[in-house]
Specification:
39% of the residues lie in helices and 13% in strands. It has 273 residues and is of the alpha/beta class. The protein has a single domain, classed as Alpha-Beta Barrel (TIM Barrel). Helix 6 links the parallel strand 4 and strand 5. The structure holds 3-methyl-2-oxobutanoic acid (KIV).
Length: 273
Amino acid sequence: MSATGQTKRIMPARIEAMKGTRPIVCLTAYTTPIARLLDPHCDLLLVGDSLGMVLYGMDTTVGVTMEMMIAHGQAVMRGAKKACVIVDLPFGSYQESKEQAFRSAARILKETGCDGVKLEGGEEMAETVAFLAARGVPVFGHVGLMPQQVNAVGGYRSLGRSDTEAEKIRRDAAAIAKAGAFALVIEGTVEPLAREITASIDIPTIGIGASPACDGQILVSDDMLGLFNDFKPRFVKHFAELAPMVSKAAEAYAEEVKARIFPGAEHTFQVKK
Ligand code: KIV
């Protein structure tokens, strides 16, 4: 609690200091009601650009805009009281130059009030990460499988089996940690490599499809809630099965409306006599 009686938000520096203490709990959130529900249980909520696919039905995250990230960042900030809230920089908003990255990050921080930004990339983004960190922007890195590069790498698959791939991810992780990121997502990466990177860098690694060896875990909340019947990659565990519950509820509603059972007297406004 703070002096004003409000719950204190977990800041990026505290996430960084959690390395080696206990596993760091992270989930994605895109809306106020979901952020309210997840916040008490999470150290960090990520407004991921996965929202393009999860909420908007896009095939990839490439089409996600700054306006979408800002609107959903604001929504999550209205619901999260305790967790550290990080917003993704969308594709095209930071790769051109470190100055462009700073302008985009500053806009997201100012317009959402979030605690930091995430960007994808390894060695090629290290200078940008250092530029942002030196100017007061907490940066969450992201290496391994990088969904914004899906068009270049030709699809989603786990990485790090070949020596060349493993060496690239190793060097990417080291570069982003050295540049001053406060934590690092490792996505879709084989366990021995995720373990090796976790042991070799000073900042926490947060895994998604990167084994229990990481310092923390993140999942797309809609995946772990079982909101998609038709999508369950190996690294996802359903902690609930909401898709069939939603279908059943919609079916029951439709039946009651058609049969004039809903709305009942208890749902109906009358004029008092
Ligand atoms: O966009 C996203 O949701 C992410 C996480 C899955 C790490 O980058």
